[in-house]
Design a protein that fits this description.
The protein has 384 residues and is mainly beta. 10% of the residues lie in helices and 43% in strands. The chain is built from 3 helices and 28 strands. The strands form 7 sheets. A 6-stranded antiparallel β-sheet has the order 21-16-28-24-25-26, with no helix packed on it. A hairpin with a 2-residue loop joins strand 19 and strand 20. The C terminus is likely disordered.
């Protein structure tokens, strides 16, 4: 009788293999996968690998399709009138695989209460940043389409509100330290001459620069990871018929153009790092991005999940223990609420932190965050 071959495929997922009858001693097999990534095809005859087995192959993402694309950022949740805001479009194929290149054309329109100035930047890595400025307060409707089809969540409804009075006053104080004095002088009709006014401004600016430095140092102690996803499939054994699934994880932190990373822990889905990374913070409105990567010596490193953390609820000088859940950024769930992380403060309490991420659960990472004023900083009351 005919010899029986055994064909198995392992990788990001393990697709089902179908045997198709052939003629003249040929054997045909077919399979289908919706996930891009690296796969290993093992072909055995009577339990022994044929020559070259297992075969390594890479499945690339398909063409960009609106059904898999999504958008995120403050520009699709709300903003202030007259202030520029932005959001990011994530290009993906029909099955949700992230595109790693640029060049896509998205049709973006903003309507509603009034028109808005808009600009689009191709980040050349599968993401596109859209920035716009709402000129009038009210509701705006943002449509994002690819090939005439709306992406996930489009059209978006965004409300633009006037900036609170306190926000304007704080902005003016930062731009002009003696703002209050000039306002009072104008109300009394006692306005300084241009040269005297310029001299006072320069003097105030020099004092402000010497006394005020709105910077902080963020210390992030990366402790451990748990239940991380396996990205590597290694064939072992005498005939290469035994498969081991693991990863070589390391953590990357990104903030305001800075990037810091831990060392790599080899072949461990529950790694221990215990490493402290430090970043500079100039704007606590920005979020800290955490991403776990799988190091590959012969290929590009793979993402194992990511999330973002808010810095607004950190208390200066008080360490905060946080456990963040890693989710797959290439498989966003439309309409899903942002996930949270467990935290323990200095007193050992438990609660929720400002963590934003979406997608498929890919394990968790434990951290300790501590923010402290940088040298030369003073309390924000000094700005008043």
């Amino acid at each position: 009788g005919a010899k029986k071959f055994s064909v198995t495929i392992r990788g990001v997922i393990s697709p089902q293999v179908h045997a198709i009858p052939g003629d003249d001693g040929e054997f045909h097999y077919s399979y289908r996968t919706a996930r891009a990534g690296v796969y290993f095809v093992a072909v055995l005859l009577d339990g022994v690998d044929v020559g070259g087995s297992p075969f390594k192959l890479t499945v690339d993402p398909g063409p960009t399709h609106a059904n898999g694309c999504s958008a995120e950022g403050p520009g699709i949740t709300g903003g202030y009138t007259g202030m520029e805001t932005s959001f990011v479009i994530h290009a993906r194929d029909y099955y949700g695989n992230a595109r790693g290149v640029g060049g896509d054309v998205f049709n973006i329109s903003i309507g509603g209460t009034a028109s808005a100035r808009m600009r689009v930047r191709d980040n050349e890595k599968g993401t596109y940043t859209v920035a716009y400025t709402p000129e009038v307060g009210g509701d705006y409707f943002i449509s994002v389409q690819h090939n005439g089809i709306d992406i996930q969540g489009s059209p978006f409804t965004v409300s633009s509100d006037p900036m609170p009075r306190a926000g304007y006053l704080e902005m003016y104080r930062s731009l002009e330290p003696d703002f209050g004095q000039h306002l009072q002088a104008q109300m009394l009709g006692n306005v300084d001459r241009p040269k005297e006014l310029e001299a006072k401004r320069k003097k105030a600016d020099s004092k402000a620069k010497a006394k005020i430095s709105q910077e902080w140092e963020l210390s992030v102690k990366v402790l451990t990871g748990r239940n991380l996803v396996a990205k590597d499939t290694v064939a072992e054994g005498t005939y290469g018929t035994t498969f081991t699934h693991s990863s070589d994880p390391y953590v990357v932190l990104r903030l305001s153009g800075q990037a810091k990373r831990t060392t790599t822990v080899e072949k461990d889905l529950n790694p221990t790092w215990n490493e402290e990374l430090t970043l500079k913070v100039t704007d606590r409105m920005q979020r800290l991005e955490l991403e776990v990567m799988d190091e590959d010596k012969d290929d590009e490193d793979d993402t194992m999940g990511r999330c973002t953390l808010s810095l607004l609820d950190l208390v200066e000088g008080q360490p905060r223990a946080v456990t963040v859940k890693l989710l797959d950024p290439t498989h966003d769930v439309a309409g899903a609420p942002p996930s949270s992380a467990e935290e323990g403060g200095a007193a050992g309490g438990r609660g929720k932190s400002g963590v934003s991420s979406m997608g498929v659960d890919l394990g968790e990472v434990s951290l300790v965050l501590t923010i402290t004023p940088a040298k030369g900083s003073i309390d924000s009351k000094a700005l008043r």
